[in-house]
Amino acid sequence: MFLFADTSIASDVGFVVTELASNAVRHTRSGQQGGQFTVEVVLGGLAYVGVSDLGGGGYPTVRYDPLNGPVESEGKRGLRAVSQLAAMLGVHGDPMEGHTVWADLVCVGKSYEGPTQSTPVKPAT
Predict the structure, then answer these.
(1) pTM for the structure as a whole
(2) All domains of the chain in start order, with CATH
(3) What's the pLDDT tens digit per position in 24-60?
(4) Element (H, E) at 19
């Protein structure tokens, strides 16, 4: 994630994007034929990562069972890992229309300067 290259959270953002996008594909209609999902990232004092899916019959939830449980209970812990990295984690939407699962991560090392300003140039006549 080039946008976050000079920050302390580049690898965390990469993990969060991967986990949320994987969940969209594995657990919603986004992973079916013709499906899609959207990823949004914003760099600021709090870095925002949001993944919107097509819904799929349930609500994304954080599991709080022990991480060192039996092998047969592997999986379904990704949102828990994301919640441990994030300052805030949330979901909005519904199973029929789709969800956006988002996380805010505290970002240090690179301040947001906003869009660059440009001066209009008149074409030569």
Answers:
(1) 0.78
(2) 2-106 (3.30.565.10)
(3) 999 999 999 999 999 999 998 899 999 999 998 788 8
(4) helix 10-27
